[in-house]
Amino acid sequence: MATIREVALAAGVSIATVSRVFNKNTPVNPDTAERVLQVAGRLDYWPNSAAQGLATRCTRTFGVMLPDLFGEFYSDVIRGIDQQARVHQYQILLSSSHSNSEDVLSASRAMLGRIDGLILMAPDESSHEIVERVRRRVPVVLLSPRTRVDDCHSVGIDNFCGAKEAVAHLVSLGHRQVAFITGPEGNVDAEERLRGFRQALTEAGRDTDEALVIPGDFHESAGFDACSTILEHSPRPTAVFAANDSMAIGLLAALQRRGCRVPEDIAVVGFDNVAIAGYLNPSLTTVNVDACGLGRQAVDLMLNAMEAKPGSDPVRQVIPAVLKVRRSCGAPSGADGESGAGSVLSMSPDFPRQEPKAANRGLTS
Amino acid sequence: MATIREVALAAGVSIATVSRVFNKNTPVNPDTAERVLQVAGRLDYWPNSAAQGLATRCTRTFGVMLPDLFGEFYSDVIRGIDQQARVHQYQILLSSSHSNSEDVLSASRAMLGRIDGLILMAPDESSHEIVERVRRRVPVVLLSPRTRVDDCHSVGIDNFCGAKEAVAHLVSLGHRQVAFITGPEGNVDAEERLRGFRQALTEAGRDTDEALVIPGDFHESAGFDACSTILEHSPRPTAVFAANDSMAIGLLAALQRRGCRVPEDIAVVGFDNVAIAGYLNPSLTTVNVDACGLGRQAVDLMLNAMEAKPGSDPVRQVIPAVLKVRRSCGAPSGADGESGAGSVLSMSPDFPRQEPKAANRGLTS
DNA sequence: TTGTATGCGTTATCAT
DNA sequence: ATGATAACGCATACAA
Q1: Residues B197 and B241 sit within 8 Å (Cβ to Cβ)
Q2: C-alpha span between A151 and A146 (Å, rounded)
Q3: Hey, CA dihedral for A106, A110, A112, A114, is it positive or negative?
Q4: Is the separation of the CB atoms in B199 and B160 below 8 Å?
Q5: Which of B44, B106, B280, B347 has the CA that lies 20 to 30 A from B302?
Q6: Which nucleotides of C are covered by protein (CB under 7 A)?
Q7: Please, are residues A299 and A233 in contact by the beta-carbon 8 Å criterion?
Q8: pLDDT for B46-80, tens place per residue?
Q9: Pick from B60, B114, B342: which is nearest to A259 by CB?
């Protein structure tokens, strides 16, 4: 296909002029410009953006590296990143399924020269040194950073507080035996949620019964499988907090098949506030996480970082995670409590997600 | 950071040698190789892949363009693409939210020179000519192609048959009044599902009551909102087929709040077989779509296309969509039918997804 | 306003 | 086995 050289030749000008016509940063004679555009159109000339990138050292592309792509959460994060990137005319070079830091390293290398910045969710703490090596070449924004790691820009969810709030709410409803279904081992978000769970119990003057901390992996089946453990434990827990909604949903299904009523016999709370949470029966009490906003914030942070002077301090942003009370935890008291199946009147969709708003309440520390 | 030149200088060799050491395609003296690697390591040299791409005209990257990123479907498609691409050491340059062909055009241009192939889900039929322009520069694989479009490689879901099968099943259960909740206007998959719906009714000797074709948009709320229309129609439909699971779930919620029992009072069938479908109450009868497999197939097709000679015929692949009968449509007869809430015994997880298998049954035409 | 020439960081084709 | 050197396609400083 036509290159800038062929266009120049056909238009009877130099390649510099053609370049100028397209980049409109230098004045160029309207007539010649017209002619160049004409020729370019006829030849269907498309500039080679790889070459542009090499020459300008600017690719208008962000690298995005995630450990996984399962579930709505990551999907929403990507959507947020893509949305905001799009606004600023950036593209996304995606790479996921990084189980270890080796993967992160090789993927980063493959991205070198093709991105202006990297938005990275590191798989484990060992990624630390690799992050350092990457940072020397390209700006990095960390997603769900580990606390100890680095002085790097980052955006995270306030998992700890969200979880604490959720469990505190259960406690306030009178629950003494609360079980927890964990996320995959090594997952930062999941670990913080567990920490929040413990903290809430501690603050309630109870200590955690370790037998009630049931290992999970964020998938529905883990929640489903956790059911037996929960019901067979003695004394039987009256509430369960799942580290994410998928597992909460799996658990709900299992409980219902056992003839266990939710929330009457056992209360269930999830985390994430996935799209369908409000449409379940019973509707799922959960902690709202604006995954899409997380992605958008990451991009904004990146853009700021890129135009900041190298020495400036790292910005650490935390997106609030707030409890969204619905029916699965048992209505606290008044509110619009009951309703549910049976009432013909309660047709209010119980809007399952509180949109964008929350995103910008991110706290900077 | 260090470039190949600096490594060459520090190692006392030419840049050509350094290049050879890294690409191991030309024999090089073990000693000098050793020395080069040493120096490269010390300088932490990473080859610039943009420059490599320019020189080799090979980027090991696939462009992926989707109209949207909402919901599990697209997310799974991306996951499939990423998975398979990863296997072959390719990366993904992602771009979504293309509502019209203008967007597709500009995004394609921005990708030129940075991808070896483009996996494209076109937003509308007007993209036809643009696809042609793109194809002249880079191999293209179409996702969910419109039938009329081009002689281009493509992978699609067999929406028509899947939908027909679903509705035929409802008809076989005795349902005469069946409603349909459509997908977003212009969406190929959604339109094919509608076509399958109509066809099934036609084959059953009934014609479609257009008032029962209710506009939707693939979101939960559309299903929720469709409830009124459905219940108020007379004669009242005894079954509803939603163009995707999200809407089916929204509908289930609305029906339950109205005190309408599913499947006793009204049967519901969805499309997609999302992860939670089997965990709902009642579990959702739906049409299984291997979105992840779709993505993988697209990559495989692309790889084949790239090593095929330019003149060869386009490959059109269709991934089967098969009905997955669960409880929401009413058990046909025997089977493990009833159970549901109440039975303590039925703890079989009702595996919600039939994994990979189906993907490779893709039919080539 | 326009053209010339150099550089971006590689790979690859020649020589040697 | 290794070293010059010409691409790759474009942007841009400098000259004119």
Answers
A1: yes
A2: 11
A3: negative
A4: yes
A5: B106
A6: 1-5, 7-13
A7: no
A8: 999 999 999 999 999 999 999 989 999 999 999 99
A9: B342
Burial class (CB within 10 angstroms; exposed 0-12, middle 13-18, buried 19+) of A349: middle
Half-sphere exposure (Cβ direction) of B235: Cα atoms closer than 13 Å: 7
d(C-alpha B292, C-alpha B285), whole Å:
20
Q: Which residue has the higher pLDDT, A229 or A127?
A: A229
For residues A62 and B78, what is the distance between their CA atoms, to the nearest angstrom?
Answer: 17
CB nearest B341 (choices: A70, A257, A343) = A257
Residues of A 213-272 whose CB lies less than 7 Å from any atom of strand D? none
Pick out the nucleotide with least CA–C1' distance to B48.
Answer: C9
- Strand pairing category for B316-319 and B363-364: antiparallel
Whole-number distance in Å between A23 CA and C3 C1': 17
CA dihedral B8, B9, B10, B11 (to 10 degrees): 50
Residue B3: band (very low, low, confident or very high) from pLDDT cuts 50, 70, 90:
very high
Nucleotide closest to A54 measured between CA and C1': C8
Q: Do A112 and B249 touch (CB under 8 A)?
A: no
Cβ(B64)–Cβ(B48) below 8 Å: no
User: Are A257 and B339 a contacting pair at CB < 8 A?
Assistant: yes
**Which of A94, A256, A344 lies at the smallest CB-CB distance from B281?**
A256
Q: What is the DSSP string of A161-214?
A: HHHHHHHHHHHHTT---EEEE---TT-HHHHHHHHHHHHHHHHTT----GGGEE
The closest alpha carbon to A277, from A72, A69, A77, belongs to: A72
B 127-186, residues with C-beta < 7 Å of strand D: none
Indicate yes or no: CB of B281 within 8 angstroms of CB of A249: no
What percent of chain B clears pLDDT 90, i.e. is strictly above it? 82
Rounded mean pLDDT of A172-192?
96
Of A20-29, A221-230, A309-318, minimum mean pLDDT range:
A309-318
Q: In this structure, is the CB of residue B113 within 7 Å of any atom belonging to strand C? A: no
CA of B14 to C1' of C15 (A): 15
Contacts of A338 (CB under 8 A, 6+ apart): A331
Arithmetic mean of pLDDT, A18-46: 97
Chain A residues 18-37 within 7 Å (CB) of strand D: 18-20, 22-23, 25
Kindly report the pTM of this predicted structure: 0.92
List, for residues B308-340, the tens digit of each pLDDT value: 887 788 999 999 999 999 999 997 644 443 333
Q: Are A245 and A275 in contact (CB under 8 A)?
A: no
CA of A296 to C1' of D13 (A): 38
CA nearest neighbour of A247 among A272, A281, A265: A272
Query: Residue B302 CA to nucleotide C6 C1', Å?
Result: 39
Q: Nearest by CB to B51, from A54, A71, A78: name it.
A: A54
Instruction: Report d(CA B361, CA B359) in Å as an integer.
Output: 6
Which domains, and CATH codes, for chain A?
Answer: 4-56 (1.10.260.40), 61-156+292-319 (3.40.50.2300), 159-289+321-329 (3.40.50.2300)
| H or E element in which residue B286 lies | strand B286-288
DSSP string, A80-122: HHHHHHHHTT-EEEEE----SHHHHHHHHHHHTTT-SEEEE--
Gap from B55 CA to D10 C1', in Å? 13
CA distance B280 to B354: 17
